[in-house]
Amino acid sequence: MLNFDPAHYLAVQRGAVALAAPIRETVGRLLRDGAPNVFFTGAGGVNLLMLPAARLLQTRSTFPAHVEMGAEIVNTGSAHLGPGSIAVFPSVSGTTKEAIAAIEFARERGATILSLTAKPDTPIARLADVSFANDCADPTSSENFALQSLLLALAIMDARGEIDDYGEVVGQLQTLPELLVAAKQQFEPRAEALADEIRDEQHHIITSAGGSWYEAAYYGMCILEEMQWIWTRPVHASDFFHGTLELLEEDTSVLLLKGEDEQRPLTERVERFARTVTSRLRVLDAAEFELAGLSPRVRALVSPVVLAAVLERLSTHLERARGHDLTIRRYYKKGDY
User: Fold this and answer.
1) What's the confidence (pLDDT) of residue 332?
2) Class of domain 6-173
3) What pLDDT was estimated at residue 334?
4) Fewer CB within 10 Å, N- or C-terminus of the chain?
5) Sequence-ordered strand ranges (E) for the chain
6) What CA–CA distance (Å, rounded) separates 325 from 267?
7) What is the pLDDT of residue 42?
8) What is the mean pLDDT of residues 59-68?
9) Conformational region of residue 174, where left means phi above 0, alpha means psi within -120 to 50, and beta covers everything else
């Protein structure tokens, strides 16, 4: 497999799921101490990776879960953010300036800061009341943060008696790293072919629904746009029929990510329509991967993680096919703007 180190990848993802116990202990303590709510308040694409977990709480728990952009909350505040609020901040670098400003803002209002970073000795980790670090980088961070935030949401539900199979679910998650490697291996030939197929295409509509929608938005913004300078139009599958469908022509590229949760029918509706118009519909379906031993319930929860894992293979082959290194940036180092 091109530019892939299975041993390193397994170490990162095993490190993510190994945080289940300390996250559970921390969450249990904070809730016993009276935490009134949780805020998912990161900056940029990394915050998108936590939103499947936030949505899980919003739909399956009565514990208030709020989603805020770090760059906005310091300007607008929130009537819900206060003493004891759990404010979660993910960051690969641990130096993101919008996140640091939001942490300082939340601390001033009495929130408990929980950070998820790649390294423990970083500004964001040092500012946190509780810091979880797991060594990761761009090619491995999506699954890492998605898994850690899922474990956080499950721990909240467990502490509140809102889930009766916490141990079973987390037990299955412990097997996921090896299953993700197998999924990458399965997808490798298609990743290579798809990269060669779309190498010269400069515009894509990317769509999904449910938990996988956040991975679609992340991949469009952080990979295709930031790392490959390719224009994308991320649109939720439920919004596709409120405008975006009129953009389709015979050669319009549509990247459709299909998860396995209850919102799958929304993506199937887009698939049915798009096939009647464009010859460039590309479907990536989490259901195509074996994931032996995972129950349908857990498969639904980890669909964004599976799609992130296989999309990394597409990114690697796009880098090869386009001759465009994924680390190249034009403007990030030009100073303040």
Assistant:
1) 74
2) alpha beta
3) 63
4) C
5) 38-40, 65-67, 86-91, 112-117, 130-133, 203-208, 231-236, 253-258, 280-285
6) 31
7) 86
8) 98
9) alpha
